[in-house]
């Protein structure tokens, strides 16, 4: 099963990815990221045909996949089996196990 490690100001959290995942500060997100520079509803990661697709939800500080910002028409980016993603200052390695 795919997992995400969320490394923020409070340390590292290891979480399981589901078919639909939301990341952000708000507690109703699938994965809450308690970092003041992360938007309340920052990004979404969805499993589509055995691949995870990341979509930035219009965050001010951006979401990065392999150091490329997911923005404008490129707000959706393919999340490969192993990658590093940044949500503002928070850093989230991803592994598909």
Description:
The chain has 97 residues and is mainly β. The chain has a single domain, classed as Tumour Suppressor Smad4 (Sandwich). The protein contains no helices and 11 strands. It has strands at residues 2-8, 11-16, 20-24, 31-32, 43-48, 51-56, 63-65, 68-69, 76-79, 82-87, 90-96. The strands form 2 sheets. It has a 6-stranded antiparallel beta sheet with strand order 2-1-11-10-7-8, with no helix packed on it. Strands 4-3-5-6-9 form a 5-stranded mixed beta sheet, with no helix packed on it. A hairpin with a 2-residue loop joins strand 5 and strand 6 (51-56). It starts with a strand and ends with a strand.
Q: What gap, in angstroms, lies between the N and C termini?
A: 5 Å
Using the coordinates above, name the CATH class.
Mainly Beta
How many domain modules?
A: 1
Enumerate how many helices there are, as a single number: 0
| SS elements, strand count | 11
* Biggest sheet layout: 6 strands, antiparallel
Q: N-to-C SSE series? A: EEEEEEEEEEE
Mean pLDDT: 77
Helix percentage range: under 10%
The helix/strand class is mainly beta
Strand order of the largest sheet: 2-1-11-10-7-8
* Silhouette: globular
Quick recap of the structure?
With 97 residues, the protein is mainly beta.
List the helices and strands and how they pair.
Layout: E1 2-8, E2 11-16, E3 20-24, E4 31-32, E5 43-48, E6 51-56, E7 63-65, E8 68-69, E9 76-79, E10 82-87, E11 90-96
Parallel strand pairs: 3-4
Antiparallel strand pairs: 1-2, 1-11, 3-5, 5-6, 6-9, 7-8, 7-10, 10-11
């Amino acid at each position: 099963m795919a997992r995400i490690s969320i490394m923020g100001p409070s340390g590292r959290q290891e979480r399981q990815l589901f078919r639909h995942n939301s990341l952000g500060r708000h507690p109703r997100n699938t994965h809450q990221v308690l970092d003041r520079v992360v938007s309340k509803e920052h990004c979404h990661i969805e499993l589509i045909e055995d691949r995870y697709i990341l979509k930035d939800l219009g965050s001010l500080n951006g979401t990065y996949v392999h150091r490329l910002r997911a923005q404008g028409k490129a707000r959706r980016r393919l999340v490969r089996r192993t990658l590093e993603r940044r949500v503002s200052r928070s850093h989230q390695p991803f592994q598909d196990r």
